[in-house]
C-alpha cells in the first residue's frame, strides 16, 4: 500500500529565504507525482506535475525534483514571499488515483 | 476555460440524513475523482468515475456512493450521515484515466454534520 510522508509538518521562514520541502513515498511504481498548494478552507491548486520518466520540473520560482528509485521528491521555493504562505501537499499516482501526504504548512514572515 | 465547479459550497446536515454533492469537470475531461479531507486523516480517495463507470474505489463504507452522467458531471451521495462525515469533499477532473494525467481540483464542498 502506497504511503506518502512529508517533512517538515510545519515551517516558518523570513521573507526572501530559499526553502526546500520534502516528500517521500514507499512504492516506486508511480505514474507521476504532483505538488499542490492549498490555502485555508480552499481547494487544491496544482503547482507542478512530474511524470515518472522525468527528473524535475520548473515553474517560476518553484522547482520540483523526483528520484523515483529512492522514493523522494523535493519542492524548492526560491526567494520566498508572504504570499507563498499555504499548505503544500505532494501526491503520487499509481494504479489508483492520488495518494496524498499530510502536507507541510508554510508561513513566510514579512 | 472554466475550472472544476462544485455545488453546494457549504452544507449543514443532521446525523441520519442523506446528502448529495455535485461536481462539474473541466470541459472535455472524462475522469472525475472524489476525495475526503479531514484534519485527522488528511486527503483520502473515495472513488473515480470514467465514462460513466466507477473505475476505482477507496476504502469507505457503502454509505458513500457516486455516479457520473453522460456529460461527465458527477454526483456523490452519503446516506445515514454520521458526525465523522464532517469534512471538505473535493472533486478532481482529468482528461483521461486519473492515474496518468494531471488532476485539477474544485473548491470543495464543506459538509458539517450536527
Q: Mind explaining what this structure looks like?
A:
The complex is a heterodimer of chains A (110) and B (114). Chain A has 110 residues and is an all-beta fold. Helix content of chain A is 0%, strand content 57%. In chain A, strands 2, 4, 5, 9, 10 and 11 form a 6-stranded mixed sheet that branches. A 5-stranded antiparallel sheet of chain A has the order 1-3-8-7-6, with no helix packed on it. The radius of gyration of chain A is 13 Å and the shape is globular. In chain A, 35% of the residues are buried. In chain B, a hairpin with a 2-residue loop joins strand 5 (42-50) and strand 6. Chain B is globular and about 35 Å long. Chain B has strands spanning 5-7, 10-13, 19-24, 31-38, 42-50, 53-57, 64-68, 74-78, 87-94, 104-105, 109-113. The A-B interface holds A 31-32, 34, 36, 41-46, 49, 89, 91, 93-103 and B 4, 33, 35, 42-45, 48, 56, 58, 88, 90, 92, 98-100, 102-108, 110.
Task: Summarize the helices and strands and which ones pair or pack.
The complex is a heterodimer of chains A (110) and B (114).
Chain A: E1 4-7, E2 10-14, E3 19-25, E4 32-38, E5 44-51, E6 56-59, E7 62-67, E8 72-77, E9 86-93, E10 99-100, E11 104-109
Parallel strand pairs in A: 2-11
Antiparallel strand pairs in A: 1-3, 3-8, 4-5, 4-9, 6-7, 7-8, 9-10, 9-11
Chain B: E1 5-7, E2 10-13, E3 19-24, E4 31-38, E5 42-50, E6 53-57, E7 64-68, E8 74-78, E9 87-94, E10 104-105, E11 109-113
Parallel strand pairs in B: 2-11
Antiparallel strand pairs in B: 1-3, 3-8, 4-5, 4-9, 5-6, 7-8, 9-10, 9-11
Amino acid at each position: 500500500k502506497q504511503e506518502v510522508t512529508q517533512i517538515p509538518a510545519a515551517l516558518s521562514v523570513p521573507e526572501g529565504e530559499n526553502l526546500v520541502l520534502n516528500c517521500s513515498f514507499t512504492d516506486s511504481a508511480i505514474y507521476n507525482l504532483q505538488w499542490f498548494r492549498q490555502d485555508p478552507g480552499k481547494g487544491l491548486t496544482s503547482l507542478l506535475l512530474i511524470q515518472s520518466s522525468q527528473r524535475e520540473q520548473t515553474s517560476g520560482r518553484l522547482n520540483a525534483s523526483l528520484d523515483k528509485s529512492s522514493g523522494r521528491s523535493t519542492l524548492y521555493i526560491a526567494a520566498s514571499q508572504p504570499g507563498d504562505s499555504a499548505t503544500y501537499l505532494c501526491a503520487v499516482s499509481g494504479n489508483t488515483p492520488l495518494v496524498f501526504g499530510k502536507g507541510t504548512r508554510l508561513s513566510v514572515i514579512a | 476555460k472554466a475550472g472544476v465547479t462544485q455545488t453546494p459550497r457549504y452544507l449543514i446536515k443532521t446525523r441520519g440524513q442523506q446528502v448529495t454533492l455535485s461536481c462539474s469537470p473541466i470541459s472535455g475531461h472524462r475522469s472525475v475523482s472524489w476525495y475526503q479531507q479531514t484534519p485527522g486523516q488528511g486527503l483520502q480517495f473515495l472513488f473515480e468515475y470514467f465514462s460513466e463507470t466507477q473505475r476505482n474505489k477507496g476504502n469507505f463504507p457503502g454509505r458513500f456512493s457516486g455516479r457520473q452522467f453522460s456529460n461527465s458531471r458527477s454526483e456523490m451521495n452519503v446516506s445515514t450521515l454520521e458526525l465523522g462525515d464532517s469534512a471538505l469533499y473535493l472533486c478532481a477532473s482529468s482528461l483521461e484515466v486519473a492515474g496518468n494525467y494531471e488532476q485539477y481540483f474544485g473548491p470543495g464542498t464543506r459538509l458539517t454534520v450536527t
